[in-house]
């Protein structure tokens, strides 16, 4: 331990990467379909954390803590963030669909600010950080010299299940087929009888709910939540999506894990470097390989 | 024979200066209002220069306050840490102007560096890179102990007064106006309209995109220096993403590409901020409704969304006030 590249750092990096991956998937899906960098996506993640927080104290009245309750809280976090994402799409992005792209980007910044400050202005939530409840008992395992908690396993498991579900959704269902079609050519898809707006709305729902799940996992793992918690993870997940090739689903996951490991290792080396590594990666990727690692495989784009 | 006529902009500037100065001398405007007017003018510089980058050249910068931070810290370091200047010594005021210009040059150099990615990146990618640059500048400032780190640079002498800020703002506007309405400005506008077409028409797009960033950053550096010497503190959080988004609201609400719009928006939003702050304090302390200053930002966010949804081109659109249009010489 103590070294920059120990097993412990890799495990911590994977855990962080799993959270980034869930956020990055939403970015990349929305980008693939409407070519919009949804700046508010990090705030959907925050909404998910607060929805989980609220759901926990609601369920606490009539449910014993444990796996069943944690599952329900996860559902609530996903539903809350997914609903906010759909609402944002309907009222803020949809009217600008055929205007210049930069106007929806600016609107996305507006939505992001609105969510952050609305949450910190709401009396029950407020700007100061809150402790996140311990949904499940934390246990530690010692595996190969690294301390691995059951939270690491939960984070990775939830992320894996959701990602497999997403892959099946995209590859095997009619809605997934429609999503792929819209991402390839919106107008042609419309001519083929696909309800493009419905597909976009569904994409926001899925992307938002993944961010919500990430919010719950982040609350569980780093138990402090506050209204501005989404800004940095959102930005880093976006960078992960760019690193993997934006619009590319496997790329987003790959980029997120690279990002998570790079960040934990860099932080172990020097905290300033840890803060800045994401932007260094971004600038290097954009200058050397703007399409990202998997960017050329257009067939998998959704 | 043509009679010599003063340009309209000079007249408008002189009237504004004389009226405000008169109101200050007669005591109608107290110190509080003077501070708001000074801040508004600094925001005029910031919004107008961001407009040069975003509105006129058609690039997208989200880290404009990062340039201001460079200007603020460089000039603040010179006046506070290197020379320990005092506003009451005449010679020191000259060094202060030199420090501001040096800070602006430093910001210009940073703008040059940030202009480079703009050669390869467009729209949303550029937005993220500039946002990243702004955050990197903030992180670096947070970690330099010499300039105070996270405490900020404290005890900066108060050199910025109404006259100084007015003169800098006025010259910035004159220069920007002349640039925008020159052939260089038209070249920049053509990049915004269609980069490929303008390149085919022989516009050196590389040069003009970098030029937009350098000029924008230079004047943002001036604004940062003035702000630091007005508030007497330079703090990393003043220059974060939050501050840059307020500039964005000013540019988009005012109108992309309209200097008039940026000037009006900078004044009205600075006054709106103060008005909302007073209103919220009143509701909380006198009426007893427990609300916080966050509501100001909620209103700003809604304003930005509504402007984009219902008035995408901003309140002024591309139009300029007659005052800001260079007069043709008739023979």
Mean pLDDT of chain A, to the nearest integer, reads 88
Radius of gyration of chain A: 19 Å
In angstroms, what separates the terminal alpha carbons of chain A? 41 Å
Can you give the mean pLDDT of chain B?
A: 87
Low-confidence stretches of chain B: none
The largest sheet of chain B, given as strand count, sense and whether it forms a barrel, is: 2 strands, antiparallel
How far apart are the termini of chain B? 9 Å
**Biggest interface between chains:** A-B, 42 and 37 residues
Order of helices and strands of chain A: HHHHEEEHHHHEHHH
Beta-sheet strand percentage of chain A? under 5%
Shape call of chain A: globular
The strand line-up of the biggest sheet of chain B is: 1-2
- What does the overall shape of chain B look like? globular
Describe the structure.
- The complex is a heterodimer of chains A (302) and B (331).
- By secondary structure, chain A is mostly helical.
- Chain A is built from eleven helices and four strands, in the order ααααβββααααβααα.
- Chain A has helices spanning 7-34, 41-59, 67-93, 101-121, 150-172, 174-184, 186-191, 196-221, 231-244, 249-269, 271-288; strands at residues 130-131, 140-143, 146-149, 224-225.
- Mean pLDDT of chain A is 88; it is low at 297-302.
- Helix content of chain B is 72%, strand content 1%.
- Chain B is built from 13 helices and two strands.
- Chain B has helices spanning 8-25, 31-56, 64-82, 90-115, 117-120, 123-143, 162-180, 183-193, 195-200, 205-231, 241-254, 259-287, 294-310, and strands at 153-154, 233-234.
- In chain B, strands 1-2 form a two-stranded antiparallel sheet.
- In chain B, α2 runs antiparallel to α10 (205-231).
- The model of chain B has no long low-confidence stretch (mean pLDDT 87).
- Chain A binds chain B through residues 36-37, 92, 95-96, 99-107, 109-111, 113-114, 116-118, 120-121, 123, 126-127, 231, 235, 238-239, 242, 272, 275-276, 278-279, 282-283, 286-287, 290, and chain B through 60, 62, 117, 120-121, 123-125, 127-129, 131-133, 135-136, 139, 143, 241, 245, 248, 252, 290-292, 294-295, 297-298, 300-302, 304-305, 308-309, 312.
